[in-house]
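the two lines:
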Amino acid sequence: MWRRWKRNGAAHNGYGLNGAAQSGLTSRAIIDLRDVVKVYETPAGPFTALKGVDLAVERGEFLAVVGKSGSGKSTLINMFTGIDHPTDGEVIVADTPIRHLDEGKMAEWRGRTMGIIFQFFQLLPTLTVVENVMIPMDLAGMYGLSERHDRAMHLLGQMGMTEDANKFPAVLSTGQAQRAAIARALANDPPILVADEPTGNLDTRNAEIVFELFETLAAAGKTIVMVTHDDELAQRVPRTVVIADGLIVDEVRR
Amino acid sequence: MNDRNNGCASEPLIVLKGLKKAYRTPAGDFYALNGIDLEIWPGEFVALLGRSGAGKSTLINMLAGIDRPTAGEIWIGGTALHRLSESKLTQWRGREVGVIFQSFQLMPMLTCARNVMLPMDFANRYGTPRRQYVRARELLDAVGIVEHADKLPSAVSGGQRQRVAIARALANDPTFLAADEPTGSLDSRTADAVFDVFQQLVAAGKTIFMATHDRELASRVSRVLHLEDGLIIEDMRLASPVEGHDLVAKMEA
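prediction for all of em together
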């Protein structure tokens, strides 16, 4: 099933992964990691979590990242979400070299560029579902005041959550809460969605619903990067990279 | 129920009278709360024990103003929550109560400090973003994690995230905190540290109402309620941790 990925001479042009190389010449990757190294200082000495990773993700790609815990996949995600900074190498996301952003600029950039979804639900308990979806628009000052509610309702409609808009997170099922979190991640219409184990806390049926929502979003042009432990789901994603010991060791395209 | 935990207070902070909550099910109405009468005094640290499905979360949601009773009265700080309009209730919730849940519920895109600033923003309090930021740092300092103020939630540990959630619950300086299984997803050492933060808040005058499965933690509060089938079946004031340990051990699981 897995095709062995061989690091080749093209790796350092930023579009180093075989199939992407040609198309990459005309459409620049939206996420572009070049020889990224991350070293953490620990009491036991330096620990290298990423050992020179090249990864180019094209606009509209749906990419799964798999790997054991400790393999470096969370560190990898942290590099292009700007949660953490590389020790060496370059990270360019949506044409922005993110090393040049200070924390204030970073927050603004992140709010416009990506939606983040985690395994556990991050809805604010004292706000209704629709109010939760409106928060990123409020924070980024995106869309007119009167438009925000309509847009939030529209996004909830896409998630099949119209009826739940005025409920509080505490009364939602876990599947509903995750769909509301996805609606909120889409609030500012970011080109990139990053999902860290988005189905990890869901039963099979709800995992399926969430996965199909991602497929729909990818078909509509969103770039989606999903970290998952679920091999079955990963095999249904058009492109999968496998991380082990701080390196991309395998890649498969379907 | 007539004795007072705190000799200084002349009025209970929370009064529940005949509180009921019914949910419609295909099999008929299900009463998650079936007639709760309760008074909570300022400065009490109350633990709510009971099995899953006993009605604990429903009761917490009532006290947090995020659910409404089917019947009965709910008074907090002299406000009749059961009579408030939706918009008044939203306003009340934003200012008068801090809510902490098991799963932290922080915004992943915002730094810890920005998460703490959100309720101030919503309630239009504490002035400029700069002043709100300074206050957020003070609150994060009070829960012992100010060094993580500018990190994103995913860059800190579970226990640290829960401390951020506590700091956020304190953003608008509410007199009352409602916590639903606040240590439920933490290991015991981290749970202990979070519990210590609660004890410090009580010492500083806050009133805390906490649903928990953790009987060891429940034995260290000032009052324990035991909920079963939507009714309070036991109500004990604990004079000391030792007494608390013995009494809670005797309670039915």
